[in-house]
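Quick one:
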Amino acid sequence: MSVALVTGASRGFGAVISRKLAADGFAVAVNYAHDDAGAAKTVAAIEAAGGRAGACKFDITDENAVKNGVASIVADLGPIDVIVNNAIAVHGPRPLEEQGWDYHLRQLEFCVKAPLQLLQAVLADWKARRTGVVINIGSEVTNIGNPELSHYVGAKSAMGGLTRSWARELGPFGIRVNLIEPGYILVERHVNDSPAGIEGYRKDVPLGHMGEPGDIAEMVSFLASPRAKFITGQTYAVNGGRTLA
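Output:
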């Protein structure tokens, strides 16, 4: 059974992605940092549907925690075959004048440092087996340039650069790296968002409706599968066409 590691999987996109990959036949390592109850819920849902999963609590921005966490996953579930870099730091809007370097660095820790550390932790195994898939979860903000979000826009843009560079460097080893850019999709952290703001966004979506977490999970499912065996270094906007040129 192939193994997928999904970061930030106790809720939101991560939980839905985990359930979808489990339904596809993956054993899923449900990574999280704080939400014990949410991670347990994700694992329970997978197991109730006949899948296999394990909750893996560790800080993906800490080098030693990553090494130990990956070793634990390998011991419990087997060698990792797919990494979905989904976790992100809190990133509310803030005027440029109030954005210190630490504010930007926190985003880079999740969008650059964590994906790098996770990849390095499995890379020797992947090169030896000549296989492996990285799926980075970016954001449409890199194409929009949302005001007061340069900390988040910059970090997600960096993730796009990693995707392209890694794809070229690792392609000869059979390792694929791709990026998904979701639009504004309602998950738990958006529970207090204003109806007017949601409606304003929807009006700019060519397909005329908001997306669902399952839309992102379906694209992850495709890119993680043999159906995408000849695809690497690509970016996929999943936002109803909102960033059409």
